[in-house]
Amino acid sequence: MAEPSHEAKIQLLKKKLAEAERVVVLTGAGISAESGVPTFRGQDGLWRQYRATELATPEAFADDPRLVWEFYNWRREVLAPVHPNPGHLALAAMEKRFPQFTLITQNIDGLHQTAGSGKVVELHGNIWWVRCNGCGELAEDRRVPLPELPTCGSCGALLRPHVVWFGEMLDPMILDQAHRALETSQVMMVIGTSGVVQPAASMGATAKRRGAFVAEINLEPTPYTGIYDLSILGKSGEVLPLL
Ligand code: BV8
Ligand code: ZN
């Protein structure tokens, strides 16, 4: 059967959404790309000569907290002036149209919330929150940049970004929230993610196994494209408003 046209694919996804009550979305760095936020694995995925996977680890932080904080302060400086793009805004508008709509994101930039999404499951944490390595105190701190080696106001220990690093477990409560949505979803959209990082990358396959119609919206095919029902190649900021 000939590959359906781009327009036909969008019409099919619109139809599936119109028939659905329970929708789940998984987003990755690609949905923030049109806001000017560098993605991870593209050409813009570098900071100095490092890849995020080398710096976003507990080992790197234990070894050189100053370097890792420099990396996060750079990302905070990049993120501070950016705004949600039409892709974020379309998802915020969609949320209101369904009895059950769960937005799961791998992103730590908080742009979905800024765009007006009410229920955001942040699998990998949020760069605007810091956590104390000593007493575990959590606080939102939007200072850009943060002071060098920021310390806890309560116990004086070193603060870390409240994000999930490679090799760290995701918060079980947050994972459970995501899986409950995947179990019952009728339509899932996997948007702007290269499908490399686990456990997020296999969530689309989980929804598919549970009987959901799964559509991928991405600039390029991913390792999971073949198992999804639909693969729409395009910019999320252009495709999502059409839905
Ligand atoms: C865990 C927070 C379990 C930090 C992030 C081998 C060795 C070591 C570890 C592993 C291994 N194999 C598997 C693992 C586990 C590891 C992992 O998956 N590693 C990968 C690299 C292989 N996973 C973990 O460690 C996770 N924890 O598994 O714990 C465990 C079990 C036992 C004991 C201990 C632990 C934790 C993973 C979380 C890591 N933290 N972020 C920070 O951001 O600083 S992940 C990071 O990558 C971001 O969150 C990001 O979102 C995520 C995924 O990247 P993408 O979002 O997909 O971004 P990417 O650039 O890759 O792709 C963008 C896509 O968008 C592209 O396809 C592009 O074409 C497209 N695009 C671009 N522009 C647009 C677009 N699409 C549409 N429109 C556009 N305009
Ligand atoms: Zn503390």
Write the layout of secondary structure elements.
Elements: H1 6-18, E1 22-27, H2 30-33, E2 46-47, E3 50-51, H3 52-55, H4 58-63, H5 65-79, H6 86-95, E4 100-105, H7 111-114, E5 120-122, E6 125-132, E7 138-140, E8 159-163, H8 172-184, E9 187-191, H9 203-209, E10 213-218, E11 230-233, H10 236-242
Helix pairs in contact: 6-10, 8-9
What does this structure look like?
The chain is of the alpha/beta class and 243 residues long. It folds into two domains: 6-37 and 84-124 and 170-242, Rossmann fold, CATH 3.40.50; 39-81 and 125-163, 2-Layer Sandwich (SIR2/SIRT2 'Small Domain'). Helices cover 34% and strands 21% of the residues. It contains ten helices and eleven strands. It has helices spanning 6-18, 30-33, 52-55, 58-63, 65-79, 86-95, 111-114, 172-184, 203-209, 236-242, and strands at residues 22-27, 46-47, 50-51, 100-105, 120-122, 125-132, 138-140, 159-163, 187-191, 213-218, 230-233. The strands form three sheets. A six-stranded parallel beta sheet has the order 5-4-1-9-10-11, sandwiched between helices. A three-stranded antiparallel beta sheet has the order 7-6-8, covered by helices on one side. Strand 6 (125-132) and strand 7 (138-140) form a beta hairpin. The longest helix has 15 residues, at 65-79. It is elongated. The chain starts with 5 loop residues before the first helix and ends with a helix. The mean pLDDT is 96. Bound molecules: ligand BV8 and zinc ion. Ligand BV8 is lined by residues 28-30, 33-34, 39-42, 45, 52-53, 56, 106-108, 124, 163-169, 192-194, 196-199, 218-220, 222, 235-237.
